[in-house]
Amino acid sequence: MYKNMKVLSCSALVGLLLSVSSVSADEKHAENHAKPADERTALVLKPDERAVVLLEMRQFLSGVQLMTDAFARDDAKALANAARSLGKAAVHEVPPALRAKLPAEFKQLGFSVHNEFDQIAMDAESMGDMKHSMTQLASTLQKCVACHTIYQIQNEPYPALHK
Questions:
Q1: Is the pTM of this model over 0.85?
Q2: Which is a GO BP term held by this UniProt record (predicted)?
Q3: Which domain holds residue 83?
């Protein structure tokens, strides 16, 4: 019994030493790999303007999920419907004040993405080639990734309260 306790004690000691050295290694790793600064271009918008832009992004994401489901079911008609819902039909009137704040490149990316979803819808209906449609979607999503790599959306700071 004493021998078993000695083995257990040694095992516990080794485990403790390993966990301490692991924490130390994790701390050193964290020190050497500090979180990089976010160097994306900030689009500083009023909360309601920011909500408009974020709503459109959520609609894109929901539509892409529907498209992915259509790919999984090999359903070109459902794919076309989902893609069309993200095309020019999804473009809504952007308030002039918001439009003026958005960089031309941001707006160009957005319009090209809407146009590409319309093309995906037309090709899915006319060709029914799901591999072709998947390639088109991958290309379109590269623009989404590029936009998210370039831009961040921030709220305008609240005006200071006068005392």
A1: no
A2: electron transport chain
A3: 45-155
